[in-house]
Amino acid sequence: MLAARAEEGLYRVQRAHAGVQSVCLQGTEGERWLNFCSNDYLGMAADPQLVEALAEGARHYGVGSGASHLVCGHHECHEQLCAELCDWTGRDRALLFASGWQANLAVIDSFCQAGDWVLQDRLNHASLLDAGRLARTRLHRYPHADVRAAQNWGKEDRRVRMLVSDAVFSMDGDLAPVQELVGLAQSRQALLFLDDAHGLGVLGDQGQGWAAQWSQKDCPLLVLAFGKALGGQGACVLGPAEMMEWMVQMARPYIYTTAMSPAMAFAMQASVRIVRDQHERRLRLRARIAQFREGCRRMALPVMPSETAIQPLMVGDTRQAMALGQGLAEAGIWVSAIRPPTVPRGTARLRVTLSAAHSTEQVAELLAALNLLWPTALRTE
Ligand SMILES: Cc1ncc(COP(=O)(O)O)c(C=O)c1O
Question: Which residue owns the Cα nearest ligand 1 atom 5?
Fold first, then answer.
């Protein structure tokens, strides 16, 4: 089995690095790479203010939470972080989770029963698709961002319980058609659930993300993850007070797991404030995105349509994507090749991600390396 995966170019390995998480990564044997594959879009993961906040949180409150939220793990740091998040996004109440994966499972499992129909975008993140399966819902995956197809599906005889979409698609970087999804959810009397793991911090005039620009009435269930632009770890579900209270009672991934470290909750409060107030980070990121896209256009590199920090280059063939990733690594640049089953067959790609912490010179270095390695047959003209 393992040999067959290797044969198909699908074998996965972890490559350890040894220094801080930043735009330059240091290997265990002193190697150095420019990092273009992290989700640390605003350069927060090793920001000195955030490092200090985590250390201060740990000094004051210790490291572990000790128990689940409903035993004795619920701390005032959690409550304060939830209040900040509600204020930022205009929601009634928030619940914290140790990861986005758990938050997504909690939402679908709490509001759907076995056999309920759930409509999901074909390109939704694996955690959403897995959540639907684990909650034993019946799943219909509509073509990517095709709200009309979703609208027409089962119109005559299917009651749809929930409509689920990434707000920013994690492997493509494009935006969900939220306004149309709101209309579809209303017309099918379904609950709209958006996962904005990759929009948070990056989009919105205060970094509140893509989905939170719609009201809680339009989008009642929202998941935000802290492991990307906020530079930390964990996630939250936001929504109307009564629905959140239902989750406190029913959500097994909330009830039966150790609460997030209070020190992390303390640090995430600091991160929310920095990300919300330092708009210049978003402006720097936008400038790097524009620089990268313009470079790709000039060199006819097949960059996919995206205005977010996720700027994938389509390759198609899995082995070719792997070879390009390897070539970049040898040139000192770390970009991950994304293969099936993470993306559909025939759409392997290099998932380039940009950060406000990249310099223009670093982006220029990436473009030069891509230009040297990229085969003519894979260019756009
Ligand atoms: C869209 C999306 N949702 C959820 C998750 C899971 O979040 P976490 O890494 O916090 O488990 C990820 C990625 O990891 C993601 O890309």
Answer: 100
